[in-house]
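Internal QA ticket QA-208
Title: Verify multi-chain structure generation after dependency bump
Assignee: T.L.

Test input:
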Amino acid sequence: MSHDTTPRPDDAGYLIRGASLLGGAPTDLLVRGGVIAALGPEAGRDAGTDAVTIEADGLVALPGMVDLHTHLREPGREDAETVETGSRAAALGGFTAIHAMANSSPVADTAGVVEQVYRLGLASGWVEVRPVGAVTVGLGGERLAELGAMAESRAGVRVFSDDGICVHDPVLMRRALEYVKAFDGVIAQHAQEPRLTEGAQMNEGDVSAVLGLTGWPAVAEESIIARDVLLAQHVGSRLHVCHVSTAGSVEIIRWAKARGIDVTAEVTPHHLLLTDELVRSYDPVYKVNPPLRTSDDVHALRAALADGTIDVVGTDHAPHPSEHKECEWAQAAMGMTGLETALSVVQHAMVETGLLDWEGFARVTSATPARIGRLAHQGRPLAVGEPANLILVDPAARWTVDPSTMATKGRNSPFRGLELPGRVRATFFGGHPTVLDGSLATPRPTPHSAPHGEQTGAQGGLQGGLQGGLQGGEAPAWNI
Amino acid sequence: MKHLLSTQDLSARSALRLLDTAEEMAAVGEREIKKLPALRGRTVVNLFFEDSTRTRISFEAAAKRLSADVINFAAKGSSVSKGESLKDTAQTLEAMSADAVVIRHPASGAPARLAASGWIDAAVVNAGDGTHEHPTQALLDAFTLRRHWARIAGTPSAGTTLAGMKVLIVGDVLHSRVARSNVWLLTTLGAEVLLAGPPTLLPVGVGSWPCRVFYNLDDALAERPDAVMMLRLQAERMNAAFFPSTREYSRRWGFDDGRLALLDTMGLDDTVIMHPGPMNRGLEISSAAADSPRSTVLAQVRNGVSVRMAALYLLLSGDPQDDDAADGRADQDDPPATTPEGRTP
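Actual output:
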């Protein structure tokens, strides 16, 4: 393998021809040197003869999606997912950045663990992996974890969450909200009053009454959100509410925003589409926390995402090994995969219903989540000089969800068998195509460490990225 | 009918077919030789993840009277605590060529999971799952009520419905699989169902059920029910703030001697008192009520065997009048359904 004679395609650039920017008029883009080097007629003029041309007729160009809520399971449950497999799924799903939730084993509650996850992300090179730090030691809800150490680590943690478990102690929540102001952090709360949800299995309502499954009442979510927005107001802190699932929560958040409280909220794709009627099958693929709610809730969540009450879409991608779902409902694990279906579900539920245009889609899936996570280089406008974190989407494509063909290790997709619109044709992460022609291409070589000319094929590129990352992955992923 | 998982998805026609077949089975029980060769060579497994001697021996007697081979599989405790999954247990039974699996499980939906998973080909009979359903209990209750209703009217039991009958179900509806199965089945058969209990023990969502709800037992009794079904109060509910004390529960929702006398005062001579057993005497039902001529408790136990024989027989012998088999054919001889199907709230 000759190192110095093979030109790097990333250096020569990619000329994307005729992509519709955020659903607008077709335009050419030149991606080169990690940034959008030129737009419009200049793109073709500036592109050298060795630039790779990508025909994007009929494709929509969007900023790479940013997920604030991903479970990568590593360290600890590598049988469920690894940083490598999860970030591959993310790239295929159109993401250029994901936030790895803290409920790994050991819990991401120290600088050491968050740095480990961060480095695994760098080594993988498919997307930017930003660890979320735990709020409390071991997610125990009793003592604050070393939030400052995680914030100052190489992982540069800004989002803290005990996701899966609610920080229910009001004093601890208040202190956490206050403390993270020192480094512009945010507490992402999993709003679930624990006593009201003991043994809870599904949404409490008409369906749970018939099925004889213990109810997870909406009030258990809403009462915590109400408390937390008041705490955030009192101490002047930033609060992010994870996976809002009820119409009542929407009303509380709308009220809080009207009062000027610094709260942001997230909704999952599955809560935008699915209802608790699916639980009648007792198929645990529909078991998730917070649970699937009613169609009234679904419509309230869609309206809230459209009008900005809910700020972002977060996948809550939660892969599980099959044995955790091939069992009785009550014993099954909660969670659904989502990285590879998020774009299609949001297109189906929000874009095709006319609730959001592609610009709005970019706002809720990229720009705003990047701002909440303080990722300055993600979710940027598609403009000259901006980092080339962008995706090309075929909105006219139709596909049937088949979990067995996904890149995630999880097979627990609730959208199994559903025909959905929209496919990611290409993902550019820091100027490097991680997905081309709808398939995984190569991971982005780690800056400053991968030798030139490594990525001559999928295998070569993967090896280069891995070795480079492990050897000297000190450079931040966004150092382009 | 491939499985018997719930009464909610049981059509009026299938329910009547089961009850009519149970009448034939009851006649067998009155013979000197109480045995039919119908299921000779077939294997019925009683898969019990929860203790229930009463239900298990009832199913066992039913299968044996049909000449089936019976295997009792007591997998007490949850499958996870046992270390073996429901899937592995099911596949083990499949490998042993079980023709029917009668399953009792603490998790709601476990029988439905077993039936839909593809882990097993056998017919699945729900013998009580969590707080979901207990369809054979409701069938034996309906059977008992129908005999009572027919006797009052002086008509044969077979073929008749519960149209015009008013049944009051009292107690912990929230956690009762018996109540759920009865609400669906009795309304499907044409009865009017009333529920009475403390608001803490009625599920959120009960408002969409096809029945009237009372918080006061005496108000409900004033509706002049034809049958009063008392639900068992589980011990684990007693210290979980569902009600202040067992004495208060008993005063407000127990069928005590005063309420027994009230039935006489009201002239409700034909009103029966039911209980699925086992009873907490002195708590939800007084001894005088349990032992009174109005009590159907022992008749319910007896009828349980006939109903379970009917269920096993129809599932395993390939019922020629099966709903599924009759699909797409206009079957003129069939009695019309007495209530609309699909009355899912």
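Spot checks passed. Residues 64-380+402-414 of chain A form a domain with the TIM Barrel fold (CATH 3.20.20.140).
Status: verified.
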